[in-house]
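Researcher: Quick test of sequence recovery. Tokens follow.
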């Protein structure tokens, strides 16, 4: 699940109008006049008869083969001749020509390219040898047919600035997103939604020749997994939903919970950790002083942004208050990034102080004095995507994952419409959760004309046991979301990781959790009741050269695999 000021969300009820307490105002929901499509469309024979051409993608060590399959742009209109392509990857266990089961993986987003899920799942030591491992790039993103919002204005304004002119600019930028997305996406935009994507997934299942699929979905992949279960209950195997959205409610509920989640992670995990190691990190000897360091630095960077040249003048970076907020929020996803964040905060504080004392030239001298390796690291971190993930070069749209994220979250479920709601929600959440709360009005979904789409609410009724996995201090998918969905999702089991805040658990974050998940995936034996595993703690800073680096986060390793196996189908 991404955070992004572009996609910061709102909470809505299921009623036609939503009243903001104390405001005297209402925000209308987009019309729910469309007929609920409670079942999938029957698949035309020409899609079932296609024969995917598999070719090796990436180095042979990955054992990964990829293919593109044709799918209709609109599953409700399969004879219109507007086909799209879906990129699929697979890894077969060594010595097993026809595994008895198939497990699909999705890294979330929504909109995250997922070809790397196949080699990632195959690399997990405890998952067994009876699975075919499958990844795919959902429609809109990666090596599949892309959507794009290129040219749409970003949010360079300070979200905390409540001046009416600033709020006007935010509203104008939010309102312009949809026209740019439509213009760049060549008619595909309305059909980038969960209903269309789950039918793509089931087409892949049928072409691979399996009756049921198992599933490992992270973050936005929990939403996608729950909706696949809803539309294709007869083909549901063992489903693991890791770092959960509340898929039983609209998208807006999930995004409204983010400001609290990110603030908790920053104040209750990062700040105490930084204070504990103040003798090494020098950000403050108490959590309160660490927070004060951030707020003071934010004020200084807003007053005078630091614009510096790196790598012998080949790259220019600008650090302002928005850069700082995004840097912190991006590093909350995994404790593996805490040390890098602490070092960057200390560097930015020194940079800002040098600029205040001696002007831009003094600040540039600070940068020039850094080793080239450190400059390269700063450039990498400043140009990465959300969750600290590197961007993936694509043939068509460099912003395809972000555009898909926006399309899915704005298309799937209704949002309150209009500026007043967003402005008042930001004013309500901002003082409590300033890191993200002030940006609640930076959201194109408030101005989005949705397609005629109404999907049934996932309930879990009649399904095999679903295993939900959640860390207590997850910033992007608040633990309250998992608890809410679990209460409403029949037959689910919730595995909570206490004393942990990483987003994305399965695959090395917690040994106890991995054991339970692997047992479920390999044997089908689900926990008889809800369980918890104790978190393994945040590692101490490793500032010496001899210290080993902490294990990288599962979602970042998945992105590494995706980069390694992408681009071979063009």
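Model:
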């Amino acid at each position: 699940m991404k955070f992004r000021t572009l996609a910061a969300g709102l909470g809505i009820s299921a009623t036609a109008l939503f009243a903001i307490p104390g405001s005297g105002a209402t925000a209308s929901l987009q019309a729910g006049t469309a007929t609920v499509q409670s079942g999938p469309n029957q698949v035309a024979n020409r899609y079932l008869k296609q024969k995917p051409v598999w070719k090796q993608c990436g180095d042979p060590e990955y054992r990964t083969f990829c293919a593109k399959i044709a799918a209709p742009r609109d599953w409700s209109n399969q004879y219109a001749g507007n086909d799209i392509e879906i990129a699929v990857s697979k890894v077969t266990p060594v010595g097993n020509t026809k595994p008895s089961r198939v497990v699909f993986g999705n890294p979330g987003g929504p909109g995250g390219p997922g070809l790397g899920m196949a080699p990632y799942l195959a690399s997990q030591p405890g998952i067994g040898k009876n699975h075919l491992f499958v990844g795919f790039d959902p429609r809109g993103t990666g090596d599949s047919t892309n959507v794009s919002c290129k040219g749409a204005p970003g949010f360079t304004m300070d979200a905390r600035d409540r001046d009416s002119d600033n709020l006007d600019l935010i509203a104008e930028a939010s309102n312009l997103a949809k026209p740019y997305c439509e213009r760049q996406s060549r008619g595909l935009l309305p059909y980038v939604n969960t209903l269309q994507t789950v039918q793509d997934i089931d087409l892949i299942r049928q072409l691979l020749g399996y009756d049921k699929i198992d599933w490992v979905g992270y973050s936005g992949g929990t939403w996608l997994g729950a909706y696949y279960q809803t539309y294709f209950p007869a083909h549901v195997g063992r489903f693991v939903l890791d770092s959960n959205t509340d898929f039983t409610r609209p998208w807006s509920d999930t995004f409204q919970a983010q400001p609290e989640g990110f603030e908790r992670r920053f104040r209750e995990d990062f700040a105490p950790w930084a204070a504990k190691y103040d003798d090494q990190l020098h950000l403050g000897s108490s959590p309160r002083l660490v927070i004060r360091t951030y707020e003071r630095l934010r004020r200084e960077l807003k007053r005078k942004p630091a614009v510096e040249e790196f790598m012998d003048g080949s790259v220019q970076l600008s650090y302002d208050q928005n850069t700082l907020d995004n840097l912190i929020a991006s590093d909350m996803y995994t404790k593996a990034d805490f040390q890098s964040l602490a070092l960057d905060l200390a560097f930015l504080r020194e940079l800002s102080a040098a600029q205040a004392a001696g002007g831009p030239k003094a600040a540039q001298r600070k940068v020039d004095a850094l080793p080239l390796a450190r400059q390269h690291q700063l450039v990498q971190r400043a140009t990465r995507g959300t969750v600290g993930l590197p961007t993936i070069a694509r043939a068509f749209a460099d912003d395809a994952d972000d555009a898909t994220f926006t399309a899915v979250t704005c298309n799937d479920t209704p949002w309150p419409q209009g500026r007043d709601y967003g402005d008042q929600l930001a004013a309500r959440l901002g003082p409590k959760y300033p890191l993200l709360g002030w940006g609640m009005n930076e959201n194109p979904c408030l101005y989005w004309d949705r397609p005629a789409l109404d999907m049934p609410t996932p309930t879990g009724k009649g399904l095999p046991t679903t295993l939900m996995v959640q860390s207590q201090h997850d910033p992007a998918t608040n633990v309250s979301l998992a608890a809410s969905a679990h209460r409403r999702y029949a037959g689910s089991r919730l595995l909570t990781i206490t004393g942990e805040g990483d987003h994305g658990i399965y695959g090395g974050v917690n040994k106890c959790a991995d054991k339970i998940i692997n047992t479920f995936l390999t044997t089908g034996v689900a926990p008889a009741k809800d369980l918890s595993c104790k978190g393994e703690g945040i590692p101490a800073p490793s500032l010496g050269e001899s210290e080993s680096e902490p294990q990288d986060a599962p979602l970042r390793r998945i992105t590494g695999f995706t980069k390694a196996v992408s681009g071979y189908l063009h």
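The longest strand covers residues 83-91.
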